[in-house]
Amino acid sequence: MDKLMVLPERERGVCCPPTIKARPEKIEQTSEILKALADPTRLQIALALRDAKEPVCICDFTATFDLSQPTVSHHMAKLRDAGLVEVTKRGIWSFYRLAPDLPVGTRRILDAIA
User: Fold this and answer.
1) Does position 22 have pLDDT exceeding 90, yes or no?
2) Into how many domains does the chain fold?
3) What one-character DSSP code corresponds to residue 83?
4) How confident is the model at residue 2 (pLDDT cuts 50, 70, 90)?
5) Over the range 69-92, which residues count as b (16 or more CB within 10 Å of their CB) and which as e?
6) How many beta carbons lie within 10 A of that of residue 97, not counting itself?
7) Which of 15, 29, 98, 100 could bridge 49 with an S-S bond, Cβ 3.0-4.6 Å?
8) How far apart are CA 71 and CA 74, in angstroms?
């Protein structure tokens, strides 16, 4: 038999807000990272960069995902804006890598998914 959870008596009109221990700036930063990773293509790109030994050219992602260069650039901009990736230009090519200073929690998220 399941035990029923006994809730405390509540006085009408009196709220008991929960304690939120996370700092607002940490919540904002984490929210932006999770929004960027919520797209399947961006998540796959982040995971590929996590496993890459060297920076990856944007042209390699266009071939991998069969997407146009502007679409891949859009995804990379979202990841860059969230602080997940860094870009280096070499001539006309852009090479991406996972940001080396990612928060530990972000690395754990990527590791848990892979």
Assistant:
1) no
2) 1
3) T
4) low
5) eeebbebbebbbebbbbbeeeeee
6) 16
7) 98
8) 5
Query: For the chain, what is the mean pLDDT?
Result: 90
Using DSSP, state whether 112 is helix, strand or coil.
helix
Do the Cβ atoms of 36 and 82 come closer than 8 Å?
Answer: yes
pLDDT tens-digit map of 72-90: 999 999 999 999 999 999 9
DSSP 85: E
**Domain ranges, residue 34:** 26-113
Task: Look at residue 4 and tell me if it is in a domain.
Answer: no
CATH code where residue 87 lies: 1.10.10.10
8 Å CB contact between 94 and 46: no
DSSP helix, strand, coil percent of the chain (3-state; round to 5):
50, 10, 40
Assigned domain for 16 exists: no
Does 3 map to a domain? no
**What letter does residue 13 receive in the DSSP assignment?**
T
Residues in the chain: 114
Q: Is residue 12 part of a domain?
A: no
